[in-house]
Amino acid sequence: MKKYIIPICFVLGSLLCATLSNAQFNYKKKAAPATTPAKDTVLPAAPAPATSSAAPVLAPPAVSKVAAVPDPNVKASKSIDTTLVGGFNANPRKSLRSNSGFSTDINTKKTLQQRTPANYQNLRAEDALFSEFVWEEVDGREKINRPFIYQAYDDSGDQRFFAILLKAIESDGVVPFSAEGGDDRFTKPLNLDDVNAMLKGSLDTQLVQNVSNPNVFDTSIIYNTKLAPNPDSIYTFRLKEQFIFDSKTSRMYCRIIGIAPVATIVINNKPVKRTLFWVYYPELRNSLAKHEVYNPRNISSRITWEELFESRYFNGYVVKSTLDNYNDKMLNSLYSDPKRRLLEGDKIKQKIFDYEQDRWVY
């Protein structure tokens, strides 16, 4: 019996010590006050765990206020202030859900952004039997030209043709040229600041009271917004074209050289047309090939703007030509009657058409 007394006493003593230590731990846990971190304080990060096979201990999340992450799609460079012309938006908003009933992916229209225009056929000056320049104006108010002022908004942005021109200048690097003094030979390039100033109106000066000294008036440069073009007034586009008859292929080619938006500004209750700027059409073709034209009959069979111009799916009236124009004048300066100007423009078109037909022998 003596040999069992010592182990039994050892086991009972161990159980008694464990019970007393557990009771003391629970008492301290209840007596300690609860501490919570402040609302805007950052909890210290846990130390890096030592390299071992045990799982790493994660640090508690910070609850401090963090600045918003900037949107990578927003460009920090200069851009055209499209809000000044009534909603011409050069930064389209992408749809986050499928916006059609087709069972296809939302990004299937990426192929549209990969389109490139077909290369022009090489025309030599030695093979040209006939060459004349013609200036035409396309009025978007005509039924066949209504896609030029189609007021809609989709994933590619504003669908008005003037908005597409602004987007090509801002995003695609197309260079606009000044139209001051009737210049249409692309001699003076413009930048985005010049385009913004043009859309704001004309520069003007005004005396403004000094903030520090009320008796002093400083000269301030402002924009006269009365001469700013209204977005609804930019419905006319002037085309500079060259008609070339090639002797190798025995056909007439029409090559568009430049496009210029024309705004109608009311001055003293009289509408005055103002050519904003010129854009070199061969540089613009890549941008036009990535934008579709509104088709009122079938939305699934749209063509691109580049195909519209090359196929000449528009109607324009002649305002000037180099054919029998010894003084290099516009038709409105030669004929005051608007009906007479339309008739003379039709005669110019007919002369060009007859020249090609007369080369053929039936």
Provide an overview of this structure.
This protein has 362 residues and is α+β, with helices and mostly antiparallel strands. Helices cover 26% and strands 22% of the residues. The protein has a domain at 127-200 and 229-358. The strands form three sheets. Strands 1, 4, 7, 8, 9, 10 and 11 form a seven-stranded antiparallel β-sheet that branches. The chain has a two-stranded antiparallel ribbon with strand order 2-3. A two-stranded antiparallel ribbon has the order 5-6. Strand 5 and strand 6 form a beta hairpin. The chain is elongated, with a radius of gyration of 37 Å. The relative contact order is 0.12.
